[in-house]
Design a protein that fits this description.
NADH Oxidase; 4-stranded antiparallel beta sheet; 11 strands; 38% helix
Length: 391
């Protein structure tokens, strides 16, 4: 905090109010406004015109959900009929995702969208995951070859019905309708995606466990917000206003008029960590409350916690999300209680008995709230394909 704000209580209060509202930072709450610069969301709305099937695949794959919108993908196209996917070492989250598990889940979602898009053009894809070996469990996977994708033309290949949902899928972070239940038949449809990858899946739809999971995720969120190193990791990814959003096209986008105004006058310190009892902290928790709405939770787990299972969890999750989209249902990952940094260990341990899984045997890879949103969500910014490709 600057000396000016220390000696000017009104200015400090303003910073606190705005800083609290900017909690949307750490969770990707784009809040406030849905209007992003056209160039930043062009990938979602412009027709894809690619003569190379691989670029067609990648133009869809880059719309994959991923943590903090880091878009940690590098695609090497220098070998014909192949795509080599590398995890970008400059787009990791070492504080909130210290082993890169969530980053690899995002890479898995990228792979699955590429495979779905290839089928649309009549190409079968063989995915060779970690052809150079899996990264060690306790090291970040930056620079690792996550997968090689080998393409073969196959006129008999059926198109994937989920292709039509790729550009419609959104991660909706607004409030959901608590009174509206999901159709009983939908849960098995969501689960079918995980079964294809040998993963475990299930739902939490009873009111008692829903409430207990809400309390756990809230506590995890509060810890992430008030732990300086995890807050600052997200603060560094804040993109406030159209100029920053268009420049970076990643991270946590904020278009609200008040944060933009305060930033322009130097009255918002994005690096000020919320402290319990402060106005900023109260605003932080208020911004969380829409996340405690919905019809229940969908989860994906693996036996053990191999790097391959993390990638496959991403593939399974994005298929489940596309299936939800096809049914007019929203999904929003809540990863706070699944993170591996030390301060959230208590919540991590408490989640397993609620899901009825043994942490010695299984790993919960994804937890997402599911339901019917009260307000539509905009597409999130994406970098240009050219920034991700080596040809």
């Amino acid at each position: 905090m600057s000396n000016d704000s220390k000696h000017n209580p009104n200015r400090r209060r303003a910073i606190g109010l705005i800083g609290g509202g900017m909690v949307l930072a750490t969770t990707g709450l784009a809040g406030c406004s849905s209007t992003y610069p056209e160039a930043a969301v062009r990938a979602w709305i412009a027709p894809v015109e690619q003569t190379d099937v691989r670029r067609f695949m990648l133009a869809h794959a880059l719309l994959a959900p991923n943590p903090h919108n880091r878009q940690p993908w590098l695609a090497d196209l220098r070998r014909n009929d192949e795509i080599t996917l590398v995890c970008d070492k400059d787009r990791l989250l070492p504080e909130t995702d210290p082993f890169g598990r969530q980053i690899l889940i995002g890479c898995g979602a990228f792979i699955e969208l590429a495979v779905i898009a290839a089928a649309e053009l009549g190409y079968r894809v063989r995915v060779d995951t970690f052809p150079q070996g899996e990264p060690a469990a306790n090291e970040l996977p930056g620079g690792a070859v996550v997968a090689k994708l080998f393409l073969t033309a196959d006129a008999s290949l059926a198109r994937d019905p989920l292709f039509a949902q790729i550009r419609l899928r959104r991660t909706n972070k607004n409030a959901y309708d608590n009174a509206r239940r999901l159709p009983d038949a939908l849960w098995p449809q969501l689960a079918s995606s995980a079964g294809a990858f040998g993963l475990l899946t299930g739902e939490v739809s009873d009111s008692d466990r829903i409430e207990r999971i809400r309390l756990l995720t809230r506590a995890s969120f509060a810890t992430e917000m008030t732990t300086p190193r995890t807050w600052l990791e997200s603060a560094n990814l804040l993109r406030i206003g159209p100029a920053e959003i268009e420049k970076h096209r990643d991270g946590i986008s904020v278009m609200g008029a008040v944060p933009r105004l305060m930033t322009s006058f130097g009255m918002f310190d994005r690096f000020e960590v919320p402290t319990p009892g402060s106005t900023g902290y109260s605003q932080v928790m208020e911004r969380w409350m829409p996340f405690e709405t919905g019809s229940g939770y969908f989860w994906i787990a693996s036996k053990g916690n191999s790097r391959r299972s993390q990638v496959e969890s991403g593939r399974a999750y994005v298929r489940a999300h596309l299936q939800a989209t096809a049914n007019g249902v929203e999904m929003h990952p809540l990863s706070q209680a699944l993170q591996e940094f030390a301060e959230v260990r208590a919540q991590y341990d408490a989640l397993y008995p609620l899901i009825k899984l043994d942490p010695a045997q299984t790993t919960i890879q994804m937890l997402a709230r599911v339901g019917y949103a009260k307000v539509a969500a905009p597409p999130t910014p994406r970098r240009d394909l050219a920034q991700m490709v080596t040809a």
